[in-house]
Design brief:
heterodimer, A: about 45 residues, mainly alpha, about 40% helix, B: alpha/beta, Rossmann fold, five-stranded mixed beta sheet
């Protein structure tokens, strides 16, 4: 029994490192930020 | 009997390992804005629409809590309305940068820049690693900038806060959100400064030029 508990703990421990489910990867940030304003209409001068 | 005792032991072990992660997490708004304000406002006028518009896919939670094996164990809920406190933080940070931020649009200059925001995402999630865990916060806001003089511009901002720790109770979530909020504030204020540098007449009192109201020659006294 104790052997199976050990095996289960190792399997869960190894596979347990979670991935992101909702948050994005840090390397994706530049793609998600607009690099500049989109000007649809300029102000009258 | 031995098997039953084993399962009991296993159940207790699992709860012991993940026990601290079963409670709902309350994500608090940050207590302060940027440590060092970004200068450049020069008393120009910016109106911030408070609160921002709500456009999150799910408003019932602001994130998740996870156990040591990366399993979702509880929800994280926002204290206060993030559409309100993010907008308030932006207004406060613009004042700290030297802008004049009137409480409402009434009485504002025609040249004033009006900033309206749309909250697209705020989500906090632990990314469980083998040795440590990083609590990541995503904040996504779209700003729409307009003026009575005809400006219409928009820009999307995405910020991330990260806090790494061996354990990840509520305080780590709050630290992560604070870092993400400061990153977002920095990006938004810098972008507004950039927009007003491009159009320097925005927010200025164009009638503030020197005016000669009266003049008295006093040399004859």
């Amino acid at each position: 029994m104790s052997r199976w508990v050990l095996v289960l703990a190792v399997v869960i421990g190894v596979l347990g490192c979670s991935t992101r489910s909702v948050v994005v990867k840090p390397e994706d940030l530049p793609k998600l930020n607009d690099q500049q304003w989109t000007i649809k209409s300029e102000p009258r001068r | 009997m031995t098997t039953r005792r084993g399962w009991t032991f296993l159940t207790v072990l699992v709860f012991a390992v993940s026990g601290c992660a079963l409670a709902e997490v309350n994500v608090k708004p940050p207590e302060a804005g940027l440590e060092k304000p970004i200068p450049g406002g020069n008393q120009r006028q910016v109106i911030v629409a408070i609160p921002f518009q709500e456009a999150r896919q799910s408003t019932s939670r602001c994130g998740v809590q996870k156990g040591g094996y990366g399993n979702e164990t509880a929800q994280a809920v926002c204290q206060g309305n993030p559409t309100q406190w993010i907008a308030e933080f932006l207004a406060r940070e613009l004042r700290a940068s030297g802008f004049t931020v009137p409480p409402s649009e009434q009485g504002a200059r025609d040249s004033a820049l009006k900033v309206e925001g749309v909250l697209l995402k705020i989500f906090v999630e632990p990314v469980v690693g083998f040795w440590s865990t990083t609590v990541e916060s995503d904040l996504n806001v779209k700003l729409v900038a307009t003026s009575k003089t005809g400006l219409q511009a928009e820009r999307t901002f995405f910020a991330k806060g990260e806090k790494t720790s061996i354990i990840w109770p509520q305080g780590i979530f709050n630290d992560s959100v604070e870092r993400g909020s400061r990153d977002l504030l920095t990006k938004m204020v810098e972008a507004i400064l950039e927009l007003m540098k491009r159009y320097p007449e925005l927010g200025l009192d164009l009638g503030d030029g020197p005016k000669l109201v009266s003049f008295t020659l006093e040399t004859e006294r």
